[in-house]
Every structure is written in structure tokens, then in C-alpha cells.
Amino acid sequence: MEVQRYADTGRALLAYSTDNEQGFTFETYDHKWHPIDHEGLILIRRPKPKPALSPAPAPSGWSKASQRRRYGQR
User: Fold this and answer.
1) What are the domain boundaries of the chain?
2) pLDDT tens, position by position, for the chain (74 residues)?
3) Is 67 exposed, middle or buried (0-12, 13-18, 19+ CB in 10 A)?
4) Cα–chain-centroid distance for residue 43?
């Protein structure tokens, strides 16, 4: 695999042109993103980020609306 040769000890995501309907394709090596076929299109699937186990408490003195907006508690 060509992408492994370029990645050496790291990880890699390679997009290159090919003769297909989409005109390009992807190869990955030791990467969290993976190419998937979705109805004939090659797409990249990214894993959802894992939520923090314990979010930092909001600083005192902020309004409740500002705390919700900043810390995602809508």
C-alpha cells in the first residue's frame, strides 16, 4: 500500500484522482477516519468525539444563559 510507505510510523489519509464516477478515492493508514461506500459515493466517516467525563464547572458571576451557551447545556 502506497499510503503506508509515506506514513512511515505516523498515520495518513490519502485522496487521489481515479477513473471512476466520483473522480477520486481515499486510502487511509492507522487513521481514525475511514472511507465508506454510500450508494456509490466514497465518503469519509469520522468517529464522534467522546464527551468529557466531567465538564469544568462554570465560573461564578456569569449569567445562566451565558453558562448554558458556553458549556452546551441548552
Assistant:
1) 1-47
2) 667 777 777 888 888 898 988 888 888 888 888 888 888 888 888 888 877 666 666 566 667 777 677 666 55
3) middle
4) 12
